[in-house]
Each structure stands twice: as C-alpha cells, then as structure tokens.
C-alpha cells in the first residue's frame, strides 16, 4: 500500500474527503518528525514508538577499498513496533 492508497482507505473509513485525510496524515508525520527532532519520544500506545537515539563514534571500513574511515557520533531515529501492529503481522 502506498501513501495514496492509504489516504483513500483512511478517507473511506473516516467518512471524510481524501484531501482532509491526506492533510491529517501529513500533519501527523510532520508533528512526529518535529517532536523526535527536538529529542522527545512519540508513543502511540499499542501501535508504535518513535524516539531519538545517540550513536557513538566508531571506525568503519569502506567495503570497496577496505580503507578504514572514521564515523563521527550522531543521532538516529528509532522506531519500535507496538503489540497491535505485531499482532496484525502474524495474521
């Protein structure tokens, strides 16, 4: 399912226009991205949790040349699947 199909399904289920459903979906993802960017966790109980995790500096290898490269410390976004989403995948 791509975004267009998801928006159409949401609009049908909620009884709203696809334009309104698309705007709600975009607003949700923008809000999640903004909050995680500020370092706050976003948790939708039973569905998912988005958080920011720190990564430590490390040495890696270029797979083509075998040369060692330095990868600086940084952050990444971590997504965890909730119980309802896990259960849906087992059906």
How far is the first residue's CA from the last residue's CA? 17 Å
Spell out the CATH superfamily of the largest domain: IHF-like DNA-binding proteins
Approximate shape: elongated
Q: β content, as a range?
A: 25-35%
Order of helices and strands: HHEEEEEH
Average pLDDT value?
Answer: 95
Q: Work out the helicity level.
A: 40-55%
CATH architecture of the largest domain: Irregular
Beta-strand segment tally:
5
Structural write-up:
The strands form two sheets. This protein has a three-stranded antiparallel β-sheet with strand order 1-2-5. The radius of gyration is 19 Å and the shape is elongated. The longest helix has 20 residues. The model has no long low-confidence stretch (mean pLDDT 95). By secondary structure, the protein is an alpha+beta fold. Helix 1 packs across helix 2. The protein has three helices and five strands. The protein starts with a helix and ends with a helix. The chain has two domains: 39 residues; 51 residues, IHF-like DNA-binding proteins (HU Protein, Chain A, Irregular), CATH 4.10.520.
